[in-house]
Amino acid sequence: MDDLNARAAAVFGGAKHFPRWPYDVTGIDYLLREKDPERFRRDLAVLTTKRYAIVEWAELYSLKKSSVKCCPLWLTHRTSRRCAWDSDCQSGGHPDRSWLDHAICWLRNGRPAVITSAPYEVSDKDQQRHLWWRKAHPTLRVQQGAGWYGHGTTQIVMWNTTRIEHVAPASNIDDPRTFMHQS
Fold first, then answer.
1. Which of 3, 16, 24, 32 is the most exposed place for a label (fewest CB within 10 A)?
2. Model confidence, pTM
């Protein structure tokens, strides 16, 4: 686990033994260890699998988590900066808000490269919005898959092809066959 924490710190920042894990891979209820040891073991196995999935995925593409959270326009910027405060993106009225649930912005070589999200539902309106982004910014691509978040969500990966040629969603952590890294 120390090796995983050190690798995660390189991706997410933080100290070698205390990486800044993103939401849903931050931890589990350690009180379960005494109250419900079986559930604790199960939850720990799921957490460990999610952690390996997100770290291995980020390492595969040489990505590091950005401290910036923004809309897909961020992917077109030369540097990692948010949209203006008076923009729809920052005011909460952005048309991409629904599919950017549990979003993480990722850097490659210090530049905006990828956005991942994990919405519980991807509507036709969301799909149309993805097509709009592709038309408005021909260097952007989108793929969907299972991802590391789990809980029945769909991982959406949007990336800038001038920074990274191809990105695929992470493997399905809800599939028990993917539990390769159990403690």
1. 3
2. 0.87
